[in-house]
Design the sequence.
């Protein structure tokens, strides 16, 4: 079971998912999140070919673009985190997914709007402290977390009066 804090428009609530991680014979890792109360989804990561996809209820498979990778050392162990971006370059549609190879989805956020999901590590998980520390490291790594804002190509100049 995975529990996420969800912010959606003007609401904040918890979303719980049944979670499974499966590694295929070819090395593709599938993180499946199934829920009766929220939209179910699967994040598929082929780190060898750098091909990533998202499949959610009622939608086509969405290509996720590699927005970067970071390694974070926690208590002497290194954890890799991928930043995967859906609808890259789409105004009001771009979403970043931060995925730990070890733990699955850590957080998801819109790159435009105030909405997203943040993992709440379960108390029963023996690696809860590592998950919490990793989540904190990602959320405080501003360069990795935030997208660079493109500089406007339209420059405003004051009108001339003659």
Sequence:
């Amino acid at each position: 079971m995975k529990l996420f804090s969800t912010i959606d428009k003007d609401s904040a609530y918890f979303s719980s998912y049944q979670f499974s991680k499966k590694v295929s014979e070819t090395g593709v890792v599938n993180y499946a999140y199934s829920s009766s109360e929220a939209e179910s989804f699967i994040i598929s990561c082929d780190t060898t070919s750098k091909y990533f996809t998202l499949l959610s209820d009622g939608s086509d498979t969405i290509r996720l673009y590699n927005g970067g990778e970071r390694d974070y050392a926690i208590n002497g162990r290194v954890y890799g985190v991928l930043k995967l971006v859906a609808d890259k370059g789409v105004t009001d549609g771009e979403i970043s997914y931060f995925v730990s190879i070890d733990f699955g989805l850590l957080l998801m956020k819109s790159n435009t709007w105030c909405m997203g999901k943040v993992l709440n590590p379960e108390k029963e998980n023996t690696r809860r402290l590592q998950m919490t520390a990793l989540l904190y490291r990602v959320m405080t790594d501003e360069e990795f977390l935030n997208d660079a804002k493109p500089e406007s190509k339209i420059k405003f100049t004051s009108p001339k009066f003659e």
Observations:
- Strands lie at 2-8, 11-23, 29-34, 41-46, 51-56, 62-74, 77-86, 95-100, 104-110, 116-120.
